[in-house]
Amino acid sequence: MTLNKFFKTTLSIFTMSMLLIGCTNKEAGLVEVQGDGLTYSEYFKNVDELDTRENVTYFKPLLSNKFMNVAPDSLENGIHPIDLVKLPFEPNEQSVYLVTSEDKKSNVQNQVQFTYLSKDVYEQAEEFFIISITDVKENPLEKYDFSNEKQDTLGNELRREVLIEDTPIFHQVKTTNGSLVYTYYQYNKDKNEIATVVTSANELYTFYKGRIYHAGYQLTNENNTEKAREEILNLFRSFVLGHK
To answer: What is this structure's pTM?
Structure first.
């Protein structure tokens, strides 16, 4: 073996070793647990098909700073944790969930949920802001133009907000006594498993750079003001875009 070939072979082995070490380090912080159910937008599921995912794997939730060390490469650059000071309520529970699955074409999909939640004295969710990000192959908003829709299927207001330039955020605001189902992941410590919580919420939805961003938020009557909704919208933008 020539000296040149020796160095090339050594470099290849070193590079492969570093890649394997990187994968191991990321996986080391994740603990697989049992789980049930999927989260997705009830209004947009016909175009994004996130309710049809298969081969689902759930992982034990982590704190935000720990999760960013193990975040999937496909989503890492699309996550910008929010400034908690700007929330219209003070969360007493913060956690990040990772759920992996496959779509109908067996493409691996990573979904991450950031939870900011305030519980009452009975341990029930009183206020929350929950953001999920899922990687997808296609832009679901190209399948149907929602821009002309003014209401969702139950008559609640549907606003077309702006993420950046011509990219929309669709904002579902509860304006009737009924609302579409909103679900989010919740960890049960006693059973060591992930379940889905079914509730209602104002919702935000957009597609940006190969990822679906979907959020739900619930505020008390005192905090449920137009100003607070605008603050939540801005926090959602900053999560998607970073502080631009």
So the answer is: 0.87
